[in-house]
Design a protein that fits this description.
The model has no long low-confidence stretch (mean pLDDT 90). By secondary structure, the protein is of the alpha+beta class. Helices cover 18% and strands 56% of the residues. A ten-stranded antiparallel beta sheet has the order 3-2-1-10-9-8-7-6-5-4. The protein has helices at residues 2-6, 57-67, 78-85, 88-94, 98-106, and strands at residues 14-26, 33-47, 50-55, 108-118, 121-130, 140-153, 159-172, 176-190, 195-208, 211-223.
């Protein structure tokens, strides 16, 4: 798997349509807020000169209008936050995922491997446990931060799909608790010598001081051949 990923250097040009849909339910909001769904789409070009993201001007204006309401009125920032979550660094990872995946493999532990199928075709199923690197923070005590991952590999060792379950449990300022669970499902494709995240579905729950919500997000990248 590592050898196959190392060959995908991402030098080729990629043109793609990018779409994102995020749904959030805030249980701690008064009155109850959600589920609130926002959507956006962009055109993406990644080549040796750099990464270009084209958002529709009408979409950008709507995001600016929502965040700039009259004094005293309630601000709406869902669309602005959506666009921020689809920043250039994050999209750069999605259109050339091999380097990020190699970083994750470097901090993972092998769990098991067996023959399986993916979309009706033979595949290898590899299970790993990934332990993310943590920043030192005297006010935060991490009790659990692990990712259980399953990868379906093709005959050439290139990932076809993956499912990850990420659990974070922590203590804030000694007596406050925080917990977040996230499940992500990935569909990969190889386009012009790069591993592309064609679809990423994410859902989970978050609970902490003043925060309790559920989220369900979908990100798609459709290459233009």
């Amino acid at each position: 798997m590592k050898a196959a990923l190392a060959l995908l250097q991402g030098q080729g040009t990629l043109r793609a349509a990018y779409e994102v849909r995020e749904t959030l339910t805030e249980f701690d909001a008064k009155p109850l807020k959600g589920p609130e769904t926002v959507m956006a789409a962009a055109q993406v070009v990644d080549d040796p000169a750099g990464l270009e993201i084209r958002w529709d001007r009408g979409l950008l204006k709507r995001a600016a209008d929502e965040a700039s309401v009259a004094k005293g009125a309630k601000r709406k920032e869902a669309l602005s936050q959506l666009l921020a979550s689809s920043s250039a660094p994050r999209l750069a990872v999605a259109v050339n995922y091999a380097p990020r995946l190699l970083q994750s493999l470097a901090i993972s532990q092998f769990k098991s491997e067996r023959a399986d199928t993916y979309q009706g075709k033979p595949a290898r199923l590899v299970e790993l446990v990934i332990t993310p690197q943590e920043e030192v923070n005297q006010n935060v005590s991490i009790k659990n931060n692990t990712i259980e991952a399953r990868f379906w590999l093709g005959a050439d060792g290139v990932p076809l799909a993956a499912v990850t379950n990420h659990t974070i449990k922590a203590k804030l300022m000694v007596f406050l608790s925080y917990e977040k669970t996230t499940k992500e499902e990935f569909t990969f494709g190889v386009v012009n010598n790069r591993l592309v995240v064609l679809k990423r579905e994410m859902q989970g729950k978050e609970k902490g001081p003043g925060t309790e919500n559920e989220f369900k997000n979908l990100y798609t990248m459709t290459p233009k051949l």
